[in-house]
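Memo subject: From amino acid sequence to discrete backbone structure tokens
Action wanted: Derive the backbone structure tokens from the amino acid sequence.
How to read it: Take the token row as a discrete description of the fold.
Attached in line: The record itself begins immediately under this heading.
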Amino acid sequence: MPDINEIIKGKEYDFLRTNEHLKGRLIFLTYGGSHAYGTNTPKSDIDIRGVAFNRKSDLVGLSSFEQVVDEATDTTVYSFNKLISLLCSMNPNTIEMVACKEEHYAIYSPVAQQLIDNRRMFLSKRVVNSFGGYAQQQLRRLQNALARDSYPQSEKEKHILESIKSAMMSFEDRYETIPEGSISIYIDDSEQEDLDSEIFVDVNLSHYPLRDYKNIWSDMNNIVKTYGSLTQRNKKKELESLDKHAMHLVRLYLMCLDILEKEEIITYRENDIELLMSIRSGKYRKPDGTYMPEFFEMVDEYGKRMKYAADNTSLPSQPDYKRIEEFVISVNEKVVTDEY
């Protein structure tokens, strides 16, 4: 595993030192994706995730800052306040950031250690909807991708619609609240010659954040794209992608169970790497590209175990908001007084 401190010294990461929101304001950086989980392969890209202090002008002025995304390096750095909000919602892509292996961090501020040491204050039963809901999306995506070549077009459209509706259940945790009835998605007869029916959308939004709307559209677009027909030229790549989805589906369940049963966030899956990598390498996939019944039986068992754990966990229904607020105030007060 390459040293993250050496990686970010590269010229391609200069934005960490020049961007107005990041220079001198980083709290920590860490690995994201497969390198964080221990499921990386020689082909795996390096994802970097991190958090930076809000500026004084963000807190008491007119400026705003939620995140900086550098697509060229697969890097995302959240503002402190944005990360706190995502941690409170048990967002899978961010809660893992405060529980990585020690050597996977580039730590810049004492606040980083405070976040890591006090991560349990964010834990709640919300994990069932965040991790469990995301796992269900991955399962539906896998099932639909396997079925799409044999289903008639109208049935495929129904599967796409259900996948999008399932994804929309998680939007509240990730994006500005969408007023009820503002986005309506449905199937109707199509006027296109090659489609019997298709999905339509009615949107009625006012004063809604453009970046959130862009990301919502991107989420929907990505679901539609997964239903493109396989060709002989890209079939191998597509099957590898499905194996990766299958692996992450199981990983999400395992992380969710750790949180519910042990009240621990375990990002690096040391005890599960053999299982996860066997899924990624296609062990549970049949020669025709479909998956063995054993895989879906395993997933079903994890789902049942998650439901039982959710009913019996000692985690609170909500995160420890009082403790979190005290922490946020203590950090942002120092930002306003120029101590950070």
About this structure: The longest strand covers residues 26-32. The radius of gyration is 21 Å. Confidence is low (pLDDT under 50) at residues 229-234. Residues 78 and 138 are 25 Å apart (CA to CA).
